[in-house]
């Protein structure tokens, strides 16, 4: 399949979804053969694990998607260069607690020191190592005891479960985020697994979030890159916790290339669907673990004139502090939603056709239509918003474009967590 045909296949929004079900499996990244992981405390954080390693003893093809923030962590420049120069890597090392961002020439040097140190312990080449960092911005890294810590990291490698690594990449997260699924392509069992971190500074175009995905399906670097980009756009780029985008966002996808199938359009669509599925699982877990969050919120927009308007409105509503605090207060303040719709400045909008509803397991309530508010049962609205899983449904009544993005409420705890982040 040519690259132009591949691009058409990936971007075809009308492609029929494949009915093959995924089976959840245990082990996280280690559900895939030839994937070893480790996680230790190394001193980047005051306590808890803060250094993770994903090791591919037989090598893996790796691709990546990175932050669109104009300020970028030193690791991103390093990783982009490596990924542009080669396809195969043997290790990904991640530290949490220090973002290694805006640290001058020392920041670049430290990334190389980290890669060199790990390479010497694993007896591989430094250019076979990718580095990632997350944490406090603008604090120089202290690598004085790094050699000893990497010794421990390498010694603790296991093929049993990736929980240690998932824990080690966390910062303000309260929950470990990992998943693994298995599915069939052409009669062969394919595995796909992920770990992720993220809780605050989360916004479409990614946020302070890292995610590492591993599969055993051999598709080649160029195809994997296009598939990852498409899946990220349908998952991590559809979430928001607080509207802030981090300089450290990184999503890496690695393939051990053990399973080979003919790269037909159908097979690529199946894998694309499953990759998006697991990316959405991680993205939704990040939102559910939003700093101080008590509610998971879906903002569902339909009836837009085009996809750009649908996306712009959904993201504006999802990032509105006024909407998010109203949801926390269980207040069906549809006026705040309406204001956010207008603030998005869509190209096509007829205010008289807008309908806004709040939905949960407790029911559904329509709050406005025909250009004016409706009288509704405030007690029922309060009950609907008392649930932990809520949908804000917006019908623009103009066209056929639609989208759903995910966010959470905003609470007092969000302020407390971020006010005390460096203490």
Automatic annotation (TrEMBL):
Active site: residue positions: 208 (nucleophile)
Cleavage, annotated site positions: 207-208
Main location: cytoplasm
Annotated site residue numbers, Involved in the stabilization of negative charge on the oxyanion by the formation of the oxyanion hole: 134-135
Reactions it catalyzes: N(2)-acetyl-L-ornithine + L-glutamate = N-acetyl-L-glutamate + L-ornithine; L-glutamate + acetyl-CoA = N-acetyl-L-glutamate + CoA + H(+)
InterPro entries referenced in this protein's UniProt entry, alphabetically: Arg_biosynth_ArgJ, ArgJ-like_dom_sf, ArgJ_beta_C
Entries under Pfam families matching the protein: ArgJ
GO cellular component: cytoplasm
Keywords assigned by UniProt, alphabetized: Acyltransferase, Amino-acid biosynthesis, Arginine biosynthesis, Autocatalytic cleavage, Cytoplasm, Multifunctional enzyme, Transferase
Function: Catalyzes two activities which are involved in the cyclic version of arginine biosynthesis: the synthesis of N-acetylglutamate from glutamate and acetyl-CoA as the acetyl donor, and of ornithine by transacetylation between N(2)-acetylornithine and glutamate.
Quaternary structure and interacting proteins, as annotated: Heterotetramer of two alpha and two beta chains.
Protein name: Arginine biosynthesis bifunctional protein ArgJ
Gene behind the chain: argJ
């Amino acid at each position: 399949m040519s690259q132009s045909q591949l691009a058409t296949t990936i971007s075809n929004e009308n492609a029929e979804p494949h009915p093959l079900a995924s089976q959840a499996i245990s082990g996280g990244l280690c559900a895939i053969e030839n994937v070893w992981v480790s996680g230790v405390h190394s001193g980047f954080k005051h306590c808890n694990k803060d250094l993770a390693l994903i090791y591919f003893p037989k090598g893996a093809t790796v691709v990546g998607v990175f932050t669109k923030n104009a300020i970028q962590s030193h690791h991103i420049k390093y990783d982009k260069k490596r990924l542009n120069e080669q396809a195969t890597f043997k290790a990904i090392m991640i530290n949490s607690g220090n973002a290694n961002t805006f640290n001058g020439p020392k920041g670049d040097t430290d990334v190389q020191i980290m890669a060199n140190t790990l390479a010497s312990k694993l007896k591989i080449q430094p250019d076979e190592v990718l580095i990632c960092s997350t944490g406090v911005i603008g604090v120089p890294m202290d690598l004085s005891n790094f050699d000893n810590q990497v010794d421990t990291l390498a010694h603790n490698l296991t093929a049993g479960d990736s929980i240690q690594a998932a824990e080690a990449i966390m910062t303000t997260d309260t929950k470990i985020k990992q998943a693994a699924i298995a599915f069939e392509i052409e009669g062969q069992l394919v595995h796909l697994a992920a770990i992720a971190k993220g809780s605050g500074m989360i916004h479409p175009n990614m946020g302070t979030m890292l995610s590492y995905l591993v599969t055993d399906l051999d598709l080649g670097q160029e195809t994997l890159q296009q598939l990852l980009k498409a899946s990220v756009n349908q998952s991590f780029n559809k979430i928001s916790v607080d509207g802030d985008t981090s300089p450290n966002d990184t999503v890496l996808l690695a393939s051990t290339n053990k399973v080979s199938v003919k790269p037909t359009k159908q097979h690529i669509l199946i894998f694309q669907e499953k990759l998006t599925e697991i990316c959405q699982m991680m993205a939704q877990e990040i939102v559910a673990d939003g700093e101080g969050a008590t509610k998971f919120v879906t903002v569902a927009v339909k009836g837009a004139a085009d996809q750009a308007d649908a996306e712009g409105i959904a993201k504006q509503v999802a990032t509105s502090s006024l909407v998010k605090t109203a949801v926390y207060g269980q207040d069906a303040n549809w006026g705040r939603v309406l204001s956010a719709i207008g603030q998005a400045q869509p190209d096509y909008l007829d205010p008289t056709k807008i309908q806004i509803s709040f939905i949960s397991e407790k029911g559904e309530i329509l709050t406005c239509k025909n250009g004016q508010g409706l009288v509704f049962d405030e007690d029922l609205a309060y009950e609907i918003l008392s649930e932990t899983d809520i949908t804000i449904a917006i019908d623009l009544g103009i066209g056929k474009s639609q989208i759903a993005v995910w966010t959470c409420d905003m609470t007092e705890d969000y302020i407390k967590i971020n006010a005390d982040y460096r203490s």
